[in-house]
Design goal:
Layout lengths: L2 H6 L1 H4 L6 H8 L11 E4 L1 H7 L1 H34 L14 H49 L4 E4 L13 H11 L15
Parallel strand pairs: 1-2
Helix pairs in contact: 4-5, 4-7, 5-6, 6-7
Length: 195
């Protein structure tokens, strides 16, 4: 995995979360027990991962990341060839021994790394905006479902170690969100001038 890929790949990962706790619960029998009236659960991560808007955002982020990786990968391949021709691909060279052409090649390499970091930052910013929009749209729906179930306490499902999961509101919220919002536009904003 090259340095460009390592910088860009994490930008897409969050929307495609799958909690490991869910896998551990299927390996052992659930604890069960009586339904605790007024205590409800929800998984925000499952809402983002399963709602149509979250799936759409994930797909768009993956396309942006792939496009950036392809563009930067092509530039890196060209630059690697150039650096090899300049004798900079092997053992490290002392700064004082570099020619002007070699320095220019290293500056191009540094500029490409900065470009990759900037694109990763932009993709991360787009991911955060998409999650924020989905969250804003889901919040009133969560409140409606919460009230409809006469909940008095709402817990994060991902921190519940066991018990009766009958009051899990996640699927109902996903269904309500899907009827309200099916896609969220995800785009890269241009860097401010002077960056």
């Amino acid at each position: 995995m090259n340095s460009i890929t390592r910088v860009l790949l994490p930008g897409v990962m969050l929307l495609s979360l799958s909690p490991l706790a869910g896998q551990a619960q299927t390996a052992t029998p659930p604890l069960g027990g009586p339904v605790v009236q007024g205590v409800c659960m929800i998984s925000r991560e499952a809402i983002f991962a399963n709602a149509k808007a979250g799936l759409s955002a994930t797909e768009q982020l993956q396309r942006l990341t792939t496009r950036a990786q392809e563009q930067l990968g092509a530039e890196q391949a060209t630059l690697t060839t150039e650096l090899q021709a300049l004798g900079l691909a092997g053992a490290p060279v002392q700064e004082s021994q570099l020619t002007a052409t070699q320095r220019a090649g290293l500056q191009k390499h540094q500029a490409l790394q900065q470009k990759a970091a900037e694109q990763a930052r932009q993709i991360e910013q787009a991911r955060v905006k998409a999650l924020q929009r989905i969250s804003e749209e889901a919040q009133p729906l969560i409140a409606q479902v919460y009230a409809r179930h006469n909940c008095g306490l709402l817990l994060d499902r991902n921190v519940v170690l066991g018990g009766n999961m009958a009051n899990d509101l996640t699927a109902e919220v996903v269904q309500a969100l899907d009827s309200k919002l099916t896609t969220v536009p995800v785009s890269i904003e241009a860097a401010p001038a002077g960056r």
